[in-house]
Amino acid sequence: MNLKKILSAVLSVATLTVTMSMGAMAESTPFNLMPANAEAVSGGTATMENGVLTLTAGAADTEFTWEINQSYDANSLYNMYFTLEHTNGFNISVTTTAKNGDVNPSLSNDFGNLPMFGEKSNDQLGTLITTGPFVDTEMIAENEQELGWLGAYTWNDNVPDDGMITVKKVTVKVGANGTVKLTNFYMSDVPGAPAGSATNAPATDGDDTPATTAGNNDTTTTKKTNPSTGESTAMVASGIVLAVVSAGAVALTMKKKAQ
User: Fold this and answer.
1) What span, in angstroms and rounded, lies between the C-alpha atoms of 224 and 218?
2) What span, in angstroms and rounded, lies between the C-alpha atoms of 230 and 195?
3) Comparing C-alpha atoms, which of 203, 228, 233 is closest to residue 215?
4) Residues contacting 247, CB < 8 A, separation 6+
5) Which parts of the chain fold into alpha helices (H)?
6) Which are the contacts of 54, defined by CB distance < 8 A and separation ≥ 6?
7) pTM over 0.90
8) Distance (Å, rounded) from C-alpha 182 to C-alpha 43?
9) What is the DSSP code (8-state) at residue 209?
């Protein structure tokens, strides 16, 4: 192997390592919108089992609400995802504080004209959504189900300079005598991101795990397989690159001795 081939091999591996590491660093952590448990929900009958929240309306349309009181970067986590099935219609609104103050965008009012929600006409916006069911991993552009929630703020220049939007509470409206079953409800840049990895993730519902409030800023979850910060990922990448370069140097030294 000549000098050029050795250097080329070393640089190729180093470049690939850096590229893969940068990709890992670019992964965004989803922002969870689920309540910690059924007790955190007000407005009507709510139960939660195996992470699925069931909301049951009364004889009239019923609104269910839970607090979040945390912020997320809307420029990075620009889509909304959820897995939901229902009877008798539903709507979801999110009370937030953005650049120009409090605003309350909702699926039907702001996105009701999308194919996924039945392409509502202007006079139908705000009425209950009757399409579905929905699966978070299928909410992609190819299925005409991508939900670019950031658009609720960009249309009137309501995105803060740093992109941070505070979510105060979530409200789900359920049609009279209907039900909504909701899970995997989060903001992210890609579908299928587990809501349990969100920095504001609630405790797992169950007898063995104490419940916590969804708005608790101290509640964090660390992924098991990845470094907890971008800096750690960068350090790992640097170590690998250095190892590769060192291997190249050894190869060069051996070649010189052979000559």
Assistant:
1) 19
2) 20
3) 203
4) 10
5) 3-26, 107-111, 151-154, 230-258
6) 46, 47, 48, 179, 180, 181, 182
7) no
8) 16
9) S
Residue indicated by tokens 């063995």 = 208
Give the rounded distance of the alpha carbon of 102 from its chain centre.
22
Band of the pLDDT at 221, cuts 50, 70, 90?
very low
CB 55, CB 44: distance < 8 Å: yes
According to DSSP, the residues that pair with 172 across neighbouring strands are: 64, 92
Q: How many residues are given for the chain?
A: 259
Ranking 1-15, 129-143, 191-205 by mean pLDDT, the lowest is 1-15
Q: Which of 176, 231, 186 is nearest to 61 (CA)?
A: 176
Residue with tokens 């390592």: 17
Q: Position of tokens 């699925």? A: 52
Q: Residue 40's closest CA among 7, 64, 70?
A: 64
SS (H, E, C) 151-205: HHHHCCCCCCCCCEEEEEEEEEEECCCCEEEEEEEEEECCCCCCHHHCCCCCCCC
Residue type at 255? Answer: K
**Cβ atoms of residues 163 and 143 within 8 Å:** no
> Do the beta carbons of residue 103 and residue 181 sit within 8 Å?
no
Contact status, residue 171 vs residue 64, Cβ threshold 8 Å: yes
Q: What is the distance between the alpha carbons of residues 89 and 132, in angstroms, rounded to a whole number?
A: 9
- What residue has token string 């004889």? 59
Give the pLDDT band (50/70/90) at residue 3: very low
